[in-house]
Amino acid sequence: MVEADPLVRAARNGFLATILLLVAIGGYQFATGGTVTTPVVATWVVAVLTFYASKYYYRRRDDGS
Prior knowledge:
This protein is mainly α. It has one domain. Helices cover about 85% and strands about 0% of the residues. Helix 1 runs antiparallel to helix 2. Keywords: Membrane, Transmembrane, Transmembrane helix.
């Protein structure tokens, strides 16, 4: 995979921004209410699954080339 590809860098930066936003929102909710709402937890699950699916896909694709 080409590291300098602008699309890959944009996707990586967008994913990082999403994770940082989730940390901020989840931390705020936990600090103020003592719990984290279901949509935030569901978004965490989707983000983690996306990360591992992408990692698996690109590792498999790099090995097959």
